[in-house]
Structures are given as C-alpha cells and as structure tokens.
Amino acid sequence: MFSFIFTFFLIIHSSFAHNVQYKVSHKNAVVIEIFFSDGAPFSYENFEIYSPDNTKIPYQVGRTDKYGRITFIPDKAGYWTVKAFSEDGHGIIKKIQIHIDDLSKVSKSQNQFGYLLKVFIGVLIILLIYWLLYLLGRRKKSEKTK
Q: Which of 93, 84, 89 is nearest to 44 (CA)?
C-alpha cells in the first residue's frame, strides 16, 4: 500500500514539471517590415537583433513572419542593429534608433488556469488520501469481525 501511495505522489510531483504557463503582455513593440524591391514580403527569413550594449551576442534571433515582419520589444534606448538575411545572400543590416519615449510599462494578463489546476490537484490529493484511509479502516474492521 505504501508503494502505491509513494508512486502516486511521484507521478503527481513530476506532472508539475511539465506544466506550461503563459502571460499576455501589452506593450509598445517595434515592428520592422522587410520586403523585396518588387514588393514581395521577405517571408520566413532569418534575422538577428543586437542591443546597443552588446554588438556580439544577439538580443533576439528568429525568422520573419509570413508578411516579412520582425517584432521585438527593446529594453533600453539607443541604436539597435537589425540584420536580416536569406539563404541566397539577400538581406539588410540597419541601425534603428529607439527613444526612451518609445518604451512603455508592461500591462500583464495573468494565467489563472495554472493556479486553478494546482488547487484542483491539491484537493484531489487530499480526497484521495482520505478515501484510502477510509478503505483501510473498513478493511481492518471487516478483518476484526471475521
């Protein structure tokens, strides 16, 4: 019986390690739209963004979206370097000046599902423990009466 309870708690404990949370933030972002000379979007191509403080390690890397857009949220004012390039050698390297007025405070929407899930699992664990104790008590009573 102890091994069952121990195994159950190990399973419950490991399930919290795979819990995925999220937040929705509304903040002023910098959106850069890149396109070819014929107007076609620079879709799904690689980019790197470097902060004013560090020109060696990228602040953000990724791919442009379907419309050739790069979106990022700078954490400080200054000249940011944007490098976007395709496999065939086309691309841009541009410095973009970000002013302090462009930076804004974050407005966050908290994920309540993760909190409710933890409460629900906690209540289930408590009910399971009481149910197991109840079954053990009934079992011992039935053994004594026989």
A: 84
